[in-house]
# Entry
Amino acid sequence: MSTDEDYVFDEASGEWMAASQLAAKQAAEDTVEVRDAVGNILTDGDAVTLIKDLEVKGAGQTLKQGTLIKSIRLTGDAQEIDCKYPGIKGLVLRAEFVRKR
# Structure
């Protein structure tokens, strides 16, 4: 049984492995796990609720505890999530202040 797949040397483990296997391993290492205030893992598209009142800098507005934020996007940072909220452009919230719905 022979395959046409290329094998590459993984310097981190010191082993030869299939190129697709190495690419999958590196992609898994690059993903950041984002957790909300109670430890639930957040993913793109989740809806979250604020767990405390937050004053939004530059908008002159306060988001109240219990406010629902729909369809979040992860930024690649373990503590920041990108959100859309009516009247506020470019809203970025810290994951420690939200709870997954």
